[in-house]
Records
---
Amino acid sequence: MPASTSRYAYLGPEATFTEAAARRIPALAGAALEPYSTVHTAVDAVRTGDVAGAVVPLENSVEGSVNTTLDELIRGAPVMIAAEHLLPVTFTLMARTGTTLTGVRRVITHPVAEAQCRAWLSKTLPDAVTAMGSSTAAAAESVSGGSPGVDGELYDAAIAAPIAAERYGLAVLADDIGEDKDALTRFVLITRPGRPPRSTGSDKTSLVAYIRDDHPGALLEILEQFATRGVNLTRIESRPTGNGMGRYCFVIDAEGHLNDARVGEALMGLRRVCADVRFLGSYARADGVRPPVGRGMSNADFRDAVEWLESLRSG
């Protein structure tokens, strides 16, 4: 089935941080966004061509990597990262219109949100009872409809992403109530493999390096391919390949673009020393940082070195 050019999946349900991130990715402006229940079903819809792409969380500045997403990148049919977005994780206390902060006695949210907002709740609503729901969006929907939760009780307010207040017509009683004010979640747009976007000068390249066997210096061999070419790594993490005990691969984010000579040569070096290398894409960095290029590591420097070598070979 050919992929739709206007339909994109995202990790649902509706009115969560993932939907908020998807709506902020420029490439998806005007596209139809559809929630999927799991990361696997969202990415699998990309693989089968049911959708043109999927937005899923990849890592959080507080909790680290989202392993379910990493495993989708490592295993199964290859997919590619086409874009990334950094979304501030801010939690909002919301309620039906007319509800006041002093009138809140029962709050519903998701366990992750509750952990982030526990200090605020203890200080501001010390007598309120907090219940846990399946998602922050479901909590907001429950409050909006005045419907009881799994415990059969009604809730006065919900803690959810700001987008949920707009989606379910709730009034904001307090904003940005999370304990970590600098929390960010990195979301990525997954597509089927193809030509990466054009280099911007502020780019990131992601890949998976599969070692040939478990031997002393295996990780060093990988790191040397980048270090000797002046390529900085922003992230490296080991994950099991799923092909037996003790078999691991490395998921890597590197500064630069596939079209940068230093990055291209690093990938060629990996190809020589690794059992396999899965290219996950080169794309614009969400933070806009333009990394410095060391002396002797520019595209012009690499071209000059190639021309010099060819002149020696030709006599």
---
Amino acid sequence: MQGNKSPLTAFFLSFFPGFGHAYLGRFVRFVLYGGSFFGSLGIVFLLGTNGSLHGEAVVILFIAAASWIINMIDMIVSLLNGAGQQRPASPYGADPGMSPGWEASQYAYEQQREKTRTILLSFVPGVGHMAMGMLQRGLAFLVAFVGLLAITIFISIVTNTGSFLVFLLALPVIWIYTLFDAVQQLQRKHRGETIDDRPFFEELEEHIGSGKKNKVLAATLSLFPGAGHLYLGLQKRGLQIMGGFLLSIFLMDSLRLSIFLFLMPLFWFFAFFDALQQMSRYERDQLKDQAVVAQLAPYQKWIGLALLVLGAYYLFDQVMGTYISQTWPSVYREFMKLKYNLPTALVAFVMIAAGLRLVFGGGFKAGSGSIPSEAPPRLPEWDKEERS
């Protein structure tokens, strides 16, 4: 093996069994892991195309999964032991302690090895902090991640409601922030600064009390739409974005509007990049809490009426539905048919009304988003005097 190899490159290549080991020059492991994984998948594919795939497919897929897991474990253990990094050799015939160049190379080698170990262990939130000796901070991250995962799944199972699983979107926020925080704490350690072993929520409380905002934390919280805006103090904008995102998920689930799922990534990207833009305005002291949809303010009465109708509908459906099904079965059957087709009919009506408005209503008027007309040219002063 010639030269140093990037441990992170080797780690990510290992998601394709054998490729990470080939990058490190371990061609025997490349053939072993790659052959067992891709060979097993190839056998399953050939058996499936021939129509002779039966119970043996489970055994073959188990072999492929086992080879992938062993490949990853072997790579992680190897990287933690310094694979891919060459330890600097001491000068021939000299005391290593008498060579300043060797000491610098040895120190850089140990720093790179510690950085690799911390990043790899931080894929489990908090473990990288524990490896640096920050037990309290690491436990806080680990409990926050595992606790949120456990309580979300528990509530979803107990209530038999899949809507609670949307809170799992907070897990990538915690994971990414934990990874960045581990790298940041390690850099402080390498610079010789003192690192405080205290839970992250204590630092968050200090940031909120001082009025200063952390750009990395704001960007990380923005992975959940609206959370970054709330952290920056944009209550109106953040609540509108978060409420719109959660309401969209609920409506698409309850009204069977899966055709509009392509809008969710657009919504997410808008919320994320808007939070980054607001953070840049915060650094220039130009932050303003402006609502995203300020045009809805004149229609608040209609919105309130729609909420009242929806509340009455769900009250009738959930409370009176059982009684009607037992008393008037035929009426309840007709109601269920109407309930099934009503969401599609309402969405179709709204789309038709919007289309007619755009076609026959003149489209978007000036002042509501159209390009403003050019202002008349300004006359010079001498021309004004001559005209007068």
---
Amino acid sequence: MIQSVAFIGLGAMGYRMAAHLVNQFEQVWVWNRNFSKAEQHAQQYGSQAVELSQAVQADVIFSCLPTSQDVVDLIEGLSLKAGSVWVDCTSGVPDIARVLHTQLKAQGVGFLDAPVSGQTIGAEQGTLTVMIGGDAEDVQRALPAMQCFGQLIQHVGEPGAGFAVKAVNNMLLAVNLCAALEGFSTLKAHGVDLNNALACINASSGKSAATESVLPQRILNREFPLTFALPLLAKDTGIALDLAHQAKLAVPVIAQTQSLVQAASNQIDQNSDFSTLAYLYEHWNKITIE
């Protein structure tokens, strides 16, 4: 039975995900590099802010950090409790997941790469999709904790598989978003009412998550709320492209999309939402997508 759970990394997603663990387990420990964020979480939700050395003694340890390298650096030198499971919800690199799985297994610790999708609203409501790579027995051991914030929890394969699915998922988001921005730039150039056009497209075969949520909720209304930073999308699309290259696949659409996302990330404020990719097209075409 799981008696203690820890959450490491209280960013936009982790802060909300960790809140769902409270009152479900006897001990919920939180840690963040900016420790005041952990103390704030403890005050707001009733978790317990602890030092990292204590957090990693939990039965199930969640991490949600910007990159896989952050997780590697964090784990290095730590003494973990045998029989525990480390569940990494970072959008990470499959090769690193395989290395960490082997490294922690030698210590008697399970490792799952378990990135999530659903943005901050899903983290808030506990309706995230969790895609998991790793050993089936570790999935079952950690499942009660993951169910606190996950609505769809899917074991997709061996170590690294969860990170691979997340990278491809975010690449498909980027592909659809680029296509939608190009399409709506074309419609705007021809004097079409974009909101009315959007209603038609979302009732037709051209719809996607980009047209159903990103355009109306972020771009056409010019709000661009920061829930998923553009540099993180560039990181994820880069991981997807690396996977394709490793398999020696012909992926011209993925390659071009990665180039576009990376170009936007290089030119636009690093603290901007992924939807500000629209600025790149607006700059090129001298058209505002609204």
